[in-house]
Amino acid sequence: MFRYIPGLFFAPKTTWNRIHDDVERRPFGFLPVLLIASLIPALSAYYGGAVAGWAIFGSDERRFLSSEAAGLFAVAVWLAFVSNAILMGYIVRWVLYRTPRRPPATHGIAFATFLSIPFMLSGLGALYPERWVLLPVFMLAGLFSIIQLYYGLPQFMRMHQDKAYFYGACIIAAGMLAMVSVGVFYLESWRAIAPPGEYQNLDEQRQDEGFIPGL
Fold first, then answer.
1. Membrane-spanning residues where (predicted)?
2. To the nearest whole percent, how much of the chain has pLDDT over 70?
3. From the CB of residue 84, how many other CB atoms can be counted at a distance below 10 Å?
């Protein structure tokens, strides 16, 4: 199903119809997309935290995560994306409970997975985690995700476009709450188990690596 990802941005109506037909034939065919695409923000977060350094905490001083803390953070990010897609799938099924063609859970999760693609791709912004990079990237991802929702809902769920606006608004409202809740849960979980002293400034990192000025 990876071949459908470019079409979401260039031909969304046709692509959503093809995704629907594919999910009908292979209900769990979306799982590789969910599990592998979620690695994009996870690996980017690892690189941004351990190698590039973070400068988004109200200070211009660049700070770094230790390798262990960055690895745990990457796992937390991956779990957050996977968990959010699964939760959103059940939210979609719940929101559409009165529709004639209420989707099964697998269809809901597949739909949520492809809705999450803009956010997964936007995770590349974490390779250079600066405020001026992350904010526009995530805002653009949110915009694309909303556009995909309104294109995909009538095509994937086989409903009239007029009804899609109402159900789409409900999915957005519930989805934002779910996304924030899942994100906070995994962030707090990471903070609880991350090793102490996980942040290092540039001077400390150079000292740890045996950096000698003038050489």
1. 28-57, 69-96, 108-128, 134-153, 165-187
2. 88
3. 24
Rounded to whole angstroms, the Cα distance separating 1 from 136 reads 28
| 113 in Cβ contact with 30 (< 8 Å) | yes
For residues 61 and 126, what is the distance between their CA atoms, to the nearest angstrom?
17
d(CA 45, CA 20) in angstroms, rounded, equals 32
Distance CA 88, CA 177 (A): 10
Residue type, 206: R
What is the chain's percent helix, strand, coil content, to nearest 5?
75, 5, 20
Give 77-125 pLDDT, tens digit per residue.
999 999 999 999 999 988 888 777 788 889 999 999 999 999 999 989 8
Q: What are phi and psi of 200, to 5 degrees?
A: -135, 135
- The rounded distance, in Å, linking the Cα atoms of 194 and 192 is 6
List the Cα angle 23/158/7 in 5-degree steps: 55
| Closest to 23 (Cα-Cα) out of 91, 103, 121, 96 | 103
Tell whether the torsion through CA atoms of 202, 207, 210 and 215 is positive or negative.
Answer: positive
